[in-house]
Design a protein that fits this description.
alpha+beta, Glutaredoxin, five-stranded mixed sheet
């Protein structure tokens, strides 16, 4: 990861900001939802996170718990762009151990009730089985859902659903968590999916990105976040609007 070793001037920061915006825009328009992948018989083992010491329970984290940077993704399990981005972001996190990935539910009203139904399922599978089970369930939902609010095919059930997961589904525990995460996003003005919030745990600074941001643009944004931390340590957060507001 290209972390700057010097504190650039404000002029350099502004220029870097414009570059990051251009890269983010290019990433958005260059990504299209692919055709739904072939349906496996069971969740793919590839969804299991790399060894890490992340604590169990929501908010669910993929990658190293001690990573300096975190990509918080606000996602909807019925969103076709989120579905296309899932495997892309997972591979990128695997290749960058200084960055972890944190999930934040944001079911969109136009995708209800299927979006919340999917969120309930993955939360309960995660509650019963832990971090790896949560990410496997999220991958399974994206693989099988018809998307755009159509939900899972009629009669399709998650394979090997445990009694503990079913007990969770029969309760209101997942609903409370999903509502809380959605309300938190609304308070921050986040209304589209996917939206990414980059966090630098070293400086406490954050940067908001709208759209499925690809690897080079993510690296540029992280470099920009680190440079800002070095140049203006008193600032708490970079303006979210600096990188533009892109459509869902």
């Amino acid at each position: 990861m290209r972390i700057p070793r010097f504190a650039p001037s404000r002029t350099v920061l502004v220029a870097a900001l414009l570059v990051a915006a251009a890269l983010t825009t290019a990433a958005w328009f260059g990504l299209r939802p692919p055709s739904p992948p072939a349906e496996p018989d069971s969740p793919s083992a590839e969804a299991t996170p790399a060894p890490a010491t992340a604590p169990a329970g929501p908010p669910w984290r993929y990658g190293r718990a001690d990573a300096r940077f975190t990509v918080v993704e606000y996602a909807d399990l019925e969103c076709p762009f989120c579905r296309a981005y899932f495997a892309v972001l997972k591979r990128w996190i695997d290749a960058h151990p200084d960055v972890s990935w944190q999930w934040h539910h944001l079911p969109l009203p136009l995708h209800e009730p299927a979006a919340s139904a999917g969120a309930r399922l993955v939360e309960c599978v995660g509650e019963a089985g832990g971090q790896a089970a949560f990410w496997q369930a999220a991958e399974w939902v994206y693989t099988h859902t018809r998307g755009d609010g159509q939900g899972l095919p009629e009669g399709l059930r998650y394979p090997d659903l445990t009694p503990a997961a079913q007990h969770c589904l029969d309760s209101d525990r997942p609903d409370a968590l999903i509502r809380a995460q959605s309300a938190s996003a609304a308070q921050e003005g986040i209304k589209v999916t996917p939206t990414l919030r980059l966090q630098d745990r070293q400086s406490g600074k954050t940067l908001l990105l709208h759209g499925p941001v690809e690897g080079d643009a993510l690296l540029s944004a992280i470099d920009l976040l680190a440079a800002s931390a070095a140049a203006e340590p008193a600032s708490k957060e970079m303006p979210a609007e600096s990188l533009g507001d892109m459509p869902r």
